[in-house]
Amino acid sequence: MPTERQLHLGLMFWATGTHAAGWRHPDARADAAYDIDLIQEVTAEAERAKFDFVFLGDRLASDPSLQYSNPAQISRLEPFATATAMAAATTRIGVVVTANPTYSDPYSIARLLASLDHVSAGRAAWNLVTGADTAAAFNFGREEHWDTAKRYAWAQECLQVVRDLWDSGADAGSGPRPLGHRGTYFSVDGPLDVARPPQGQVVLFNAGTSDQSRELSAREADIVFAGMQPTFALRQAYYADIKERADRYDRADQVTILPGLTPIVAPTTEEAVELYDLLNSLLVLDPEEEPGELVRKGGIGEGHRRNLSSASRVFGVELRGNDLAAEVPAETLAAVSEEGALRLAEITRLTRRTVDGPRRITYGDLVHAAPSELSHTVVGNPEEVADMIQEWFEGGAADGFNIYPAYVPGSVTAFTELVVPVLQRRGLYRKDYTGSTLREHLGLPVPPRRPSPTSAVRSTD
Amino acid sequence: MSTGMLLGYELPEAGLPDPTAFLLAAARKAEAARVHHLVLGDRPAAGPAGPGTPASLVAVSLLAVSTSRIGLVMTAAPAYHEPYNLARMVASVDHISHGRAGWRVITGPDAAADANHRREGVDPVTDREARAREFVPVVQNLWDTWEDGAFVHEKGTGRFIDSGRVHVLDHRGTLRVRGPLNVVRPPQGHPVVLADASDPLVSAHADVLAVGNPDSALTAAQAGGRPRLGVVTPFVAATEERARELHALAGAPVSDPARAVLTGTPGQLAERLGAWFDRGAVDGFTVRFPPPGPDGTANAERIDEFTDTVLPLLTAAGRFPATYAADTLRGHFGLTRPANRLAERLAAGPERD
Ligand SMILES: Cc1cc2nc3c(=O)[nH]c(=O)nc-3n(C[C@H](O)[C@H](O)[C@H](O)COP(=O)(O)O)c2cc1C
User: Which residues contact A369 (CB under 8 A, 6 or more apart)?
Assistant: First the structure.
């Protein structure tokens, strides 16, 4: 077993790709969300690349209005059904299910996760989210989305009961034991009807940005799925903040911090840029006259719209009426706002086009310059992508990455075939699994079954 | 309606040393014998028989990708589920099994399970009946919130969906559910809903009825032409004496209105089942296997024995078909794919883009 610190990699499974137009790529499988054979193949491919896990996000509502901005969010298979199918097709890779306690209860969550951990022989993880989505409330009998404080207080108690339920299940040494939880939000007698999970405690992910979320991550999470910070210094600060908070619970070395990463990779830089341009050219733009209230995801500026009007406001110069493929005159770009200047640097980083070099920034580039909230995009050849990964990993910004495939399955294959071997050659990433459970991949032991929680000794009435 | 008798196996929920291996072995055995469907129980409370099988959703999902023809029925009670979640679970199993999903809906009170599911604002005891009454049609309507073919995936134009073919449900009763569902309409349109004929809260909405003991089953007319499944628990052995021993070792369960307990040789059991079927008492059976017994008889062996000895006799007598006549669970039950009733009803109503 290597003693040096190793990268951890996960695969974010968005069937239609994490690029809004990924599904339109000629090689993309537009119907991948419902093709379980393909989903299993992609999982097996990630396993061949020795990924720690494949990750299923979730959303408890459908919003058809996202069809041009974020079609992956319209619909998907239920995550426990999907994860079970993924586990059935593999033997080593972890399977991560997003489950939102805001609309559920601890017994249901504990039972489903324990079941998944059993059928996968110790490869299950729970991504605990409290939901950023107000629409879910209306699907679950509520009139409003709870505020952050209520969601996290509820989630915290739920998590405690889930953990106690996992420990209440019978294990090899001893039988089940009752729980008798009487809390602020939940009343749960227990014990769990399913045996204690093979991992003892199912691996816990948390993703969120608020103070409450960071605190929950520091205290409880095995993996923190980091949101995107705009600069390297802020990424380091976020990383340090989580580690410092975790240190207060004496568990800084047990928390793995993984930002999202969208790699646009091809054998050469030119081909990678070409692929990035192709994907962006497939984006459907919003009409210029779109009214102000509409909020989309994926565009830029107020309302997140993808058009030249919105770009004009963000860059502070008049861009309307131009052909997207045309180069923007250097004098126009010289006049952009401060924020616009930062974006021009990003555009150059991604497209290698510059303000005044031989290949110049186009109007289309300005429309497509929206930063992602969920992942960092890198465009390049395998060495360039590996360089970026190494820089973050060694620079105190990440312990690894959750890889976002721009389109499926091509982007998965490109990363596993082109980048993973480079990382392995550099000694940054495992050449093979050394264990068979997700805890083992993360270097975490199975925690002992804890003594009965105090709530169990309280009278039940 | 299929020509032979309908046959399903209800698998035990607890007391198995290796539940995952058991489920896989039982499903493969049953599918090889052309049994129409499996029913997976789902009681969210610990019982005396030891650790339970995986939650029904996980169990049927595992079997969905490990088998290809047999129907897979998960169990879920409205008391412990939100309709939006349950609708997507069953729809998802229908997708990954290519149209083989069913949902057995149970509504009876269960104090131990209730005591595991109390949360702020939700007590499974309160509103149990009101929720159960609304629950099934809400789930069926959620399956209809997307019309067939609403996901157009037009790479050329970038149109992913046809927003004219998606509908908001906006159900407002004891349950309140807006929709649309976040899953494409299931391959079967509506996965098969099974319910006890005697359950007044949900039986009206079921596609298939469990009618309990075949001796006291309701008639085809009373069932409104829907398939009726009698429930039997077999103790089968090479000799009548050994079968009686097995029955005694299992605590000698007796027949009641909910099921018939059968003891005997393969020939005797095949005769009993065949006679009920021939006189039209039921359209088929759910075989509820006894839990693993203290005699050490593994439950898998009981399933094997019934499958290997009783089914061939039923087949030889022309009562049980030895081939699958359909690819979907609806097909196995002789049911057609339902039209999208929400689309029909809401055609002129408000829509959301
Ligand atoms: C990287 C990342 C991924 C997330 N994935 C999901 C998800 O799949 N489903 C979901 O409901 N919320 C998701 N969220 C939302 C968070 O879980 C969290 O509930 C939300 O951001 C509100 O909490 P906060 O204020 O702490 O950020 C994600 C957040 C981040 C940062």
Answer: A300, A311, A314, A343, A346, A347
pLDDT digits (tens, 9 = 90+) for B68-124: 999 999 999 999 999 999 999 999 999 999 999 999 999 999 999 999 999 998 999
Length of chain A: 461
B235 DSSP β-pair partners: B263
Query: Alpha carbon A255 to chain centroid distance?
Result: 16
Chain A: closest CA distance from residue B19 (Å): 9
Nearest residue of chain B to residue A284 (CA atoms): B158
Q: Is the peptide bond before B312 cis (omega within 30 degrees of 0)?
A: no
**What are the residues whose beta carbons fall under 8 Å from the beta carbon of A399, sequence distance 6 or more?**
A5, A7, A8, A256, A257, A258, A393
Cβ atoms of residues B329 and B99 within 8 Å = yes
Distance from CA of A343 to the nearest CA of B (A): 26
Pocket around ligand 1 at a 6 A CB cut-off: A 57-59, 98, 100, 129-133, 148, 207-210, 212-213, 225, 227, 260, 374
CB-based burial, A51-82: b 16+ in 10 Å, e otherwise:
bbbbbbbbbbbbbbebbbbbbbbbbbbbbbbb
For residue B54, which of A37, A203, A111 has the smallest C-alpha distance? A111
Region of residue A292 (phi > 0: left; psi between -120 and 50: alpha; otherwise: beta): alpha
Interchain pair B84, A139: CB under 8 A: yes
Written as six digits, the tokens of B223 are 């069932």
Rounded to 5 degrees, φ, ψ at B156 are -65, -45
User: Interface pTM (ipTM) of the complex?
Assistant: 0.96
The token pair at B71 is 């129907």
The beta-strand segments (E) located in B46-167 are 71-76, 101-105, 118-119, 151-154, 159-161
- A170 near B CB under 8 A: yes
Q: Are B117 and B124 in contact (CB under 8 A)?
A: yes
Say whether pLDDT at A45 is over 90.
yes
User: Is A15 near chain B, with CB under 8 Å?
Assistant: no
pLDDT exceeds cutoff 60 at A42: yes
CA A131 – ligand 1 centroid, Å: 6
What does A243-285 look like in DSSP terms, one character per residue?
A: HHHHHHTT-GGG-EEEEEEEEEE-SSHHHHHHHHHHHHHTSPP
Cβ distance B176 to A78 less than 8 Å, yes or no, reads: no
- Fill in the DSSP letter of residue A306: -
Task: Pick the atom of ligand 1 nearest to A225's CA.
Answer: 1
Task: Judge whether A44 is closer than 8 Å to chain B, CB to CB.
Answer: no
Ligand 1 centre from A442 Cα, in Å? 22
Which residue among A26, A141, A186 places its CB closest to the CB of B119?
A186
Mean pLDDT score across all residues of chain B: 93
The Cα A446–Cα A440 span in angstroms is: 9
CA distance A13 to A50: 16
The 10 Å Cβ neighbour count of residue B61 is: 35
Q: At what angle do helices A79-88 and B56-64 cross, to 10 degrees?
A: 50
- In the three-class reduction of DSSP (H, G, I as helix; E, B as strand; rest coil), residue A352 is classed as coil
Place of tokens 């030889």: B316
Q: What is the pLDDT of residue B80?
A: 97
By CA distance, what is A76's nearest residue in B? B183
The whole-angstrom separation of Cα A203 and Cα A345 is 39
The minimum CA-CA distance between B145 and chain A, rounded to whole Å, is: 10
Ligand 1 pocket test, pick from A127, A130, A217, A297 with the greatest ligand atom count within 8 Å of Cβ, gives: A130
Inter-chain touch A195–B47, beta carbons under 8 Å: no
A333 in Cβ contact with A361 (< 8 Å):
yes
- Give, for B37, the enclosing helix (H) or strand (E): strand B37-40
Shortest Cα distance, chain A CAs vs residue B154, angstroms? 8
